[in-house]
Amino acid sequence: DHNLSINGSTEKTRYLLSGQYLNNAGVVENTGVKRFNYRINLEADATDWLTVGARLFNETRKLGTSDFSNASFYLGATSPGLYPYYNGKYGGSELTQDRSNNVLTALKQEIGSRTFTLVNSAFYAKAKLLPGLSLDINYNYIKKYNEGNSYTNPDRRQQTRFSDGTVSTPAGASVGNENLYTGFFNNNSNRQVLEGILRYNKVIGEKHDIGAILGYNQTKHYEFNSSAKMKGLVDPSAWAPSAAIEKFEITGVDGDWSTLSTFGRLTYTYDRRYTVEGSFRRDGSSKFAADSRY
Questions:
Q1: How buried is 252 (Cβ within 10 angstroms: 0-12 exposed, 13-18 middle, 19+ buried)?
Q2: What's the CA gap between 170 and 74, in Å, rounded?
């Protein structure tokens, strides 16, 4: 685990840069994670009444394909004395007529990769328009991308009894190449948020405090997911989907939604003891019918 951080400032500028790299092999084989992320924060006083800034965060994770919860299930059907792996071969039960599970083959029943990427960026401005009157504008963009590929591990179809070299097929394993699978998936989404808040605060005399907020928020979200699974590899070493002979499962879906909100609040305080407050809010969503969105 490696971390690096740099921060500093000048008379009108503040900045922060940081990064992290993690390489964790995992307690169980093929369950590790490699992660890299970085962050950049930058803020500057453009004038004596305007401050602008940006924040950027990026993370990439590469994950192992094993499902340990699945391997835990196989532990209950494993015979004592089974040696998991030796000299390039998966071990089988030493008992005659026993096809007990080798937990390692459960962890390696699929080979492939999974990658998750996140980009989160924000830009903002703070303006002092008049005495007591300020405006904040924020824009946020979030991008997520999750992709991966997997294919049946052909080597797990055979288990060897190391005492005499007998080769057997474990329970549930596919023997022929026609039963080998290959596939891929990708999940892609992005979200944009625009927000503006106008604030006003005024003290009249010594006993009258007036505060007001007027706000606007707009969000737009888009998502696209697709996956494909093919069956029947002519050659187990050629695992690209185009190398399979049968379309087994193909799915895909996309969708979007958006929201729009306006809100406000007015506050009056007398002598710092008595307060009267009123507020309003109006929300709209594209998830509802056109005549019922607000």
A1: exposed
A2: 12
- CB under 8 Å to 146, separation ≥6 — which residues? 114, 115, 116, 117, 185, 186, 187, 188
Q: Kindly give, in sequence order, each residue whose CB lies less than 8 Å from that of residue 119, ignoring residues fewer than 6 positions away.
A: 56, 57, 58, 141, 142, 143, 144
d(CA 119, CA 38): 10
Q: Model-level pTM greater than 0.85? A: no
Residue 62 backbone phi and psi in degrees, to 5? -110, 125
Question: Quick one: DSSP state of residue 205?
Answer: T
CA distance 127 to 129: 6
- Compute and round to an integer the Cα radius of gyration of the chain: 30
Q: Where are the alpha helices (DSSP H) in the chain?
A: 68-75, 103-107
In the sheet with 2-9, reading across from the earlier edge strand, the strands are 2-9, 13-24, 33-45, 50-63, 110-130, 133-152, 181-204, 208-233, 244-270, 274-285
pLDDT for position 76: 65
Q: What is the tens place of the pLDDT at every residue in 80-137?
A: 677 777 887 877 777 766 556 677 777 777 788 889 999 999 999 999 999 999 999 9
List, in order, residues 6 or more apart from 188 with CB less than 8 Å away: 144, 145, 146, 223, 224, 225
User: 59 and 22 in contact (C-beta within 8 Å)?
Assistant: no
Kindly report each contact of residues 38-43 with a partner whose C-beta sits within 8 Å and lies 24 or more positions away, as own/partner.
Answer: 40/15, 40/16, 41/14, 41/15, 41/16, 41/17, 42/13, 42/14, 42/15, 42/16, 43/13, 43/14, 43/15
CB count within 10 Å of CB 217 equals: 16
pLDDT at 174 over 60: no
- Using alpha carbons only, what angle is made at residue 146 by residues 142 and 151, rounded to the nearest 5 degrees? 175
